[in-house]
Design a protein that fits this description.
Distance between the termini of chain A: 45 Å
Largest sheet of chain B: 2 strands, antiparallel
Number of helices of chain A: 16
Strand order of the largest sheet of chain A: 2-13-12-11
Helix content of chain B: over 70%
Shape of chain A: globular
Shape of chain B: globular
Largest sheet of chain A: 4 strands, mixed
Helix content of chain A: 10-25%
Strand content of chain B: under 5%
Structural class of chain B: mainly alpha
Number of strands of chain A: 28
Oligomer: heterodimer
Strand order of the largest sheet of chain B: 1-2
Number of strands of chain B: 2
Distance between the termini of chain B: 10 Å
Chain lengths: 618, 318
Amino acid sequence: MGAFPGKHGRRSRRALAAGGAAALMLAAAACGSSSGSGGQQGNTGGTKAAGGTAAYALPPNVLPNYIFPFDSSTYFSTANTQYFQYLMYRPLYWFGNGASPTLNTSLSVADAPVFDGNKVTITMKDWKWSNGESVTAQDVMFWIHMLQAVGSADWGADVPGGFPSNVSNVTAVSPTELTMTMNQSFNHTWFTYNELSQITPMPKAWDRTADGASDCTNNESDCSAVYNYLNTQAGQMTSWATSPIWGVVDGPWKLQSFNSDGNSTFVPNKDYSGPVKPTLAQFKELPFTTESAEYNVLQGGGNQITVGYLPSTDAPKKPADATVGSNPVSGYYLSPLYLWSINYFPINEQSTTGNGPIDKQLYFRQALQYLVNQASVISGPLHGYGFPTVGPVGSYPATDYLSSTGKEGDPFPYNPAKAKELLEEHGWKVVPNGVSTCEDTAKCGDGVKEGQGLQFNFPYANGIGWIDEMVDQLQSNASLVGIKLNVEPKPFDQVTAIAAGNCVAAKISCDWDMALWGGGWSFSPDYYPSGETLFMSGSAANSSGFSDPENDKLINESLTANSLDPLYQWQDYLATKLPENWVPNGVYQLTEVANNLQGVVPQSTTGALNPENWYFVK
Amino acid sequence: MTAFLIRRLLQAIVVLLLVTVITFILLRAIPGNVAIAILGPAAYRNPQAIAQFNAQYGFNKPWYSQYLLWLGHLLQGNLGYSWNLNQSVASLLGSHLPKTIALVGISTAIAIAVAIPVGLWQAVKRNTIIDYAFTSFSFLFYAAPSFFIGTVLILVFADKLQWFAAEAPQGNLWNDLTDWHAMTLPVLTLTLVTLALFSRYMRSAVLDNITEDFVRTARAKGVPRRRILFRHVLRNSLIPIATLVGLSLPGIMSGALITESVFNYQGMGYLFFQQANKQDYPTLLGIVVVVAVATIIGSLIADVLYAILDPRVRYVSA
């Protein structure tokens, strides 16, 4: 299983923050690296008050539209999972400790998995559904059987050959214990973070069809009909809040009202078994058409929004040594949210435009990478709110996953002279501000024709301010060495439809050279940054078509060894092979929090919301 | 009149079919894979799912087969299903269209109610300071894009003076119609743009009419000035306005798109814009059909009004 790009609205940026480190950094920011009218921690000195309504502004044009926590690819989105379903239906394992995207055993429905060779034992905690029934191992079996029955077509995170194909003998030994046998010895962290992380227990009350009770829990053959029934129920949005099916929850919140515009109101689930019960009386989610519309409301006062966001274009520039810059909105404190991700643009090695042979040349990809000025994009268009992508593993926050080489920073700092040198060394006549051409085919590489020019089509997702500016800058930088990028602004969804996956594997058109959708890759809901889905030869999300046997070998080693060393070796190898070209990881959201609301910071870098932690102060 | 109406209705059906054919072809020309656009990038994982989707919904057939399939469903009252929004298109239109009708209807009604007397007055007071002042205002609002007007209104009336909300009502239609604190600015934005257009036309129409022979004759017969204006000039001047209102409908709808975005109003214009970005064909086609029908009806109403306002028109012999 794995994460996937896109489907995160317009602000499709994600990064990671390690819990303690990020919390300290945020606290440090609050202490004064910068200050604005809104402050940064709000009213920290007040007393905690029970009750109140917190209104959360959803990202622009991001609406929950699916309640059943078994999302097909159409509905597999942050809006549906992290912003909506997780509030009511808890995954078996919760990831996010403060800002760190690590396993949170306290918020998980089961104890941490115990590995014994190839055998995994999962022990359920004594959590309850809101109808009084226990959350049992059978509820996990219900989900797994559903996955086995319809997952290949209807589970958005399905990866052929992945879970559950890589396990056998999944058995509910008792109501509190479940065992499964892996068909080979996998890295325990990988198996927990990228496979078990997908599971969401489902209550017995859902094991039914229109004709009455069914038994998907025990018989896989019953699951297709149950899925169809639940999927149909999930299509009846106006009845979600009153549905006896969706009203059975094990999360901290229950849906009180919902309309198809995306306005949701949640109230506390009084039977929630988790460690932190909601303090708020209500939690609301408000839809917005655009960032500007949200910002207008935020500025207009009236406390309509308790937790909103500042459009990055309106953010004052952040000092380089600060975590947060000044805040132009009064009555709120500012907290940047980076998600656990990397950002890149693919150079399509499978391109059918005639440029495929050029795209395959490592020296060319490296030359272009030297023209990406990550530092300048971060300090300029991103107003300081971003981190460089240094390879296939996210650079922020500092995690154990990032190698020491990765921690050294951008492996290709901006260097047009180096780019020119690389091209000239490989037989190109460099024509600054023109189109460089191949003069020596023996040096240019296999398949490159004499006289062939360096000009490429480059669809990119427009409408995101810093992305637009970054593309302009890259186009200008590339022209310095005669690389002509014919940029084509398109809607985000069109770019992802064209280029976010492997066009050969998906059997769709490959007539594009480079593409940028701005969202890169999110490590959620697969939190371990291994590369089997994104970089393995022929994999579905390998959008550049990059293929390298050594890379494949290193990935496989990282999936099986219970050590981080193979992961380090792999990322150090791949960072300079450029299966994709790295671009900065911009801030996902500049969160504005009302001064009298606490518990929002640190924000989870997995994208999940935990309003049960929020409370007002007097 | 009956024959005219039948003829116009038949023409309308042909126009509607042409609109849907052209829209259908244009939508298919959007780059990118339809199945992936609808299923999401995660569909890349599963080429079989893409093929299954294409077969299930006819995307593997020639465009004309797809069109006929869609048309067949349409004739049975089935506008299709929006995968992106997990709702039937009929349901989406049912929730979004009334909101846009409310916004466009109220603002157009206000604009007409204000534009007619203003245009009339400007014509009567032509080339005076009052005329120049209104002309300046008209040009200003006619030239300014609706997002600019909306933003300025928010800055002044919501942020600074705090008289009205910066956001349109969030809720059902009844809420929209009763929450004037929130509804005023979006209505005002659309009204100002439309008002400028209507008042200019009205002024021109009145100026044309007051130099006509029948006005001179009425004056010579000693008919009071007020009666000439309201009984003769006004009625004749309304003819181009009636036509204009009918034909302005698509323009007003497109203005509503921007206004809806600025004021976070979940109407049909905004729905169209967002789903166009997501290649949500069923929703786009559904909206196109509705707007085309509205435009045709608007044009029809304009023609009927034209006949009522101007008895010289004899459609039966046309």
